[in-house]
TrEMBL record, chains C, D:
A Pfam cross-reference name: CoA_trans
Family from the record: Belongs to the 3-oxoacid CoA-transferase subunit A family.
Keywords: Transferase
Protein known as: 3-oxoadipate CoA-transferase
Organism encoding this protein: Intrasporangium oryzae NRRL B-24470
InterPro entries according to UniProt: 3-oxoacid_CoA-transf_A (IPR012792), CoA_trans_fam_I (IPR004165), CoA_transf_BS (IPR004163), NagB/RpiA_transferase-like (IPR037171)
Keyword presence, Transferase: yes
SMART domains the record matches: CoA_trans
Amino acid sequence: MSTLPAVPADPAVPAVPAAPAVPASSGSGPLGRDALAAVVARDIPIGAYVNLGIGQPTLVSNHLPPDSGVTLHTENGMLGMGPEATGDEVDPDLINAGKIPVTELPGASYFHHADSFAMMRGGHLDICVLGAYQVSQAGDLANWHTGAPDAIPAVGGAMDLATGARDTFVMMNLLTREGESKLVERCRYPLTGVACVSRVYTDLAVFLIEPDGVVVRETFGISFEDLCDLVPIPLRLAEGARPGSA
Amino acid sequence: MSTLPAVPADPAVPAVPAAPAVPASSGSGPLGRDALAAVVARDIPIGAYVNLGIGQPTLVSNHLPPDSGVTLHTENGMLGMGPEATGDEVDPDLINAGKIPVTELPGASYFHHADSFAMMRGGHLDICVLGAYQVSQAGDLANWHTGAPDAIPAVGGAMDLATGARDTFVMMNLLTREGESKLVERCRYPLTGVACVSRVYTDLAVFLIEPDGVVVRETFGISFEDLCDLVPIPLRLAEGARPGSA
Amino acid sequence: MVAISPTVEAAVADIPDGATILVGGFGTAGQPVELLEALVRGGASGLTIVNNNAGNGEVGLAALIAAGRVRKIICSFPRQHDSHHFDAAYRAGAIELELVPQGNLAERIRAAGAGIGAFFTPTGYGTPLAEGKEVREIDGRHYVLELPIRADFALIKAHVADEAGNLTYRKTARNFGPVMATAATTTIAQVSQVVPRGGIDPENVVTPGIFVDRVVVPATATEPHHEEDQ
Amino acid sequence: MVAISPTVEAAVADIPDGATILVGGFGTAGQPVELLEALVRGGASGLTIVNNNAGNGEVGLAALIAAGRVRKIICSFPRQHDSHHFDAAYRAGAIELELVPQGNLAERIRAAGAGIGAFFTPTGYGTPLAEGKEVREIDGRHYVLELPIRADFALIKAHVADEAGNLTYRKTARNFGPVMATAATTTIAQVSQVVPRGGIDPENVVTPGIFVDRVVVPATATEPHHEEDQ
């Protein structure tokens, strides 16, 4: 479930739809990163203000149609961020949160860091999309620290994004390389935020974190029953969901 | 004594001098409002950032020489305020805290109310000059409410100014119309701020509120002994002070 | 996403009875007079208004108070030479007053917009306006705990808007507009002019469009500015 | 009152051993590289540095760390692909790290400049970065109490300054500069250009001169901007 926004939901932005307008393809296997980004993009309402985290979430921008009216925020002080800069466009003073040179779209604005994070913390961003090490069934997020004793910890804006946006979506592979589910009963890694994730988009299924449990909205190339065998928490199939074949 | 500023004193602005460069005229009687404004103006260091309260304190600006480099702040969102506007200069969008049309000097800046009061509360203003109903020997200020049961209370920015500026100067007549001292042991009116006043400029004397008591820096047309008879708190004469004749 | 409202009446049409409304302005500078007068015509009542003052003369907020629509006002400086409509309502016991020091008012509104749960301010410590509030000594200084002020609507007056909802202001009419825009569920800005996206330099945007839901150019707008100031 | 320093060396000459310094920038965007390198040449050591990161490559803050001048760093994101000087010092136990979520870092600096004694933030609640801190539930949400971060000096990079000390910035190089300028006893800004008073439109000032003590145009300034951007 999402944290309570400091300011109630903005009526100018339609609520995030509970189910996709078009049922997802339930084709022949797990979704690739790019296909998963397209699924996330389809769930972003027209006109939304969105922050895309570093890495896989950045791919979502490639799938937002030009008429989506979606405005991208980068926490280092900009709304109206455009695509990555190339050639002569590169300007070291115009970068995204990953420190990659980007461009500016018409209608952009710049602001300082305290204002930028006030914007996030105050619940003004409709959606942020983040990667994760683990997500718990209560929506707890772990994505900043493996807890390894020799790791140098670095948190950046992850905690602010996770707790600040109205909806926090996670994008990740469902399983670790060792085959363990990253959707878990309780996170083993240090937390980024408590009960902040509302949806988990993975290569095998889309999960909705709801107050009464985790709901599977769609699966990709796997049956609901096989999915339940992989994930160590109780799952419910959403009404009208179209589970994929195994 | 002054409240602790949130940020230590700015070394770019010389400390407020403990004694005037030129001894005040100790002439033949109490100072008029304009002459008192000149005394205050003389104590404002070159380059200081100053907020002048509504009423008598506003007169101080008439006595700041053009080369003083003093920048005036108005809490409704401006630094670099110029003199009152006249004729075609009048613009309803450019007013001071007393809602009087004013002008803009080169080097001015505009900012919103939260930023303007952050500037004050954060200890960035060197001096504010306020009127008062009463000031206590500990520097408590009462200037917003008589406490009369039928009065409509209004506080404005007085509490923020009193506690926010590095030095708060008060300008007032020493005595009420009934002849009672407004410099008192303990304020009888509701407080504006606690231990916030550092100096009290009156028609009869200038008082410094120091940690170990109230010091008379100069008197105007009255002997120190006669002044002590008027004011119901212990007074000390500053070293080198030139008391006026009675 | 910002909507351009065709009229001030349309812009405020869904403000219900009992709403809490942040109203921009310091006196009449920056006061969204046309939006407020549309609200008078619209008929919503039992309103809680947050403004620095309590109305001036006969226009805008003063007209709303005169029409008996304001149940409560949260402000720093109600008593002015021309606040006679408020004065009369207050003395008649028809309006509730919550008095807040001006800087605490601005900071409490900012806190609501910035997701700050509460903050310790030195302003008001030891005064009647801190009575009943939590106090704490931090690093040798005394502070009072203050809570956010958020609202259902913000009505503000800006200068130029672009089609992304970005706003600029004019001189000291900026005052409370930028912070109020951040602290309401729905923010409605009356402006002198709407320009296309890109019509405001991104470096000079004061209120980013993310905070603005509706923009309207009042039909009767008689702006005091000179064209070259835009 | 602002002073125009003749050189970056003169601008930082009085920074003593053991000082706490707010350093602007997000990575290298907005980082006052020339001021930091003057500080390396100047020799102050035992410094506490507050910056979003912990140095990139060989320049600026990375050079200061490489020279062994930094005792402690307060930042949100030390570990980067090019933070090898920090990494080495950290693993050698030669530098202390206080990790702060980025938004709490910005807000704590703002609080210092704004005279806020402490504030309740939702960020970090329930995580290891809130351990030992006061928590409180307000209106059904959990918050952590955070304290201001103030400093002896702020070193920032802006774009244009006027002779009143007013500053503008360029694009996302604005980042921490405006809040850091408010939170130090002495704020030193390196800029591309100094214009006369009135050379910056008062509506477009980002940092008012009241927050700026010294301005300097580095001799080696090679600004990436196009002239028409000024």
